[in-house]
Amino acid sequence: MSTTRTTAVPGVELADPGPGLVTLDPVRTALLRGLDDLLTGLAGTLAAPEVIGPPLLAVEGLAKLDYFRNFPHLGVSAGRFAADTHAGLAAGAAPDGRPLEPTGHLLPSATCYGLLLSLEGQDVGDGVRLSASGRCFRNETHYDGLRRLWGFHMREVLYLGSREGAAEHLELGAAFITATAERLGLDLTRAAADDPFYDQGGSRARLMKLDPVKHEFSAPDGTAIASVNRHRNFFGDRLAIRAGEHGPAHSACVAFGLERWVHAMILAHGSAEAALERLDAARA
User: Fold this and answer.
1) How many domains does one find in the chain?
2) Which Gene3D superfamilies match (predicted)?
3) Does 114 fall in a domain?
4) Which structural domain range is residue 201 located in?
5) What is the DSSP letter of 244?
């Protein structure tokens, strides 16, 4: 495969717009795009077709998934200027302080939510896999370079079907992450995470502590760059998604935070340019 050569933008410096927001220069952009292309190999291995999820998620749909009970702090809402402000704005009035009307929608905080909501009420038979990459947004208590962003890219490979199929999906996903990290010269550690898919005070939360549903793969500085997530039949129950004779569908996803992979590559190889060289070699 041919390599991609990039240079800095001549005569200008690309500054970050604000906390949690970054502008990637050409080298880091090529690194992110190339990594996404490499990570999409999991979708090819699993015959997961590429789809594009919705850019906004209805709050009613997210409420069915206990989103606000588990992640009340993460949501970034979509608003619009009220009609009675349009004339003033058009006349040059400053938008600061002008109220926004709620739209009843949030920006996605994970790629899989839109895909799951799109399958509500369906029967996936013996199982279905989907692959998607999208922009995700999260309110955080703090931001830290490419490690923790307000807006970022996430690729996910999602499975819905039987309990056994979900377990196999995660096993294959974990093996892919490990093999890909080795190709890229990344030293990752795997550990159980405590992100809730359920009410933290309920019996299912206690079950999760005994039987973790999420494992993260982290760089040496502790940055989690990938995860394998077992949802059991939670989403199948909430969204009435069936898997034929198996009953409510079990689901699982393998997720990659692309900017975090860029960070891990630069951390491992010393610079974005060196990281891109290593990526080119891994893809050759």
Assistant:
1) 1
2) Bira Bifunctional Protein, Domain 2
3) no
4) 26-52+125-283
5) G
According to DSSP, the β-strands at 100-107 and 76-81 are antiparallel
**Is 7 contained in some domain?**
no
The residues facing 62 across adjacent strands are none
Residue 278 lies in a domain: yes
85 falls within a domain: no
Tens digits of residue pLDDT in 29-82? 999 999 999 999 999 999 999 999 999 999 999 999 999 988 889 999 999 999
Q: In CATH, what number is assigned to the domain containing residue 219?
A: 3.30.930.10
Nearest residue to 173 via CA among 4, 39, 83, 9? 39
d(CA 158, CA 103): 28
Strands (E), the chain: 57-58, 76-81, 100-107, 128-137, 151-161, 189-192, 214-218, 224-232, 250-257
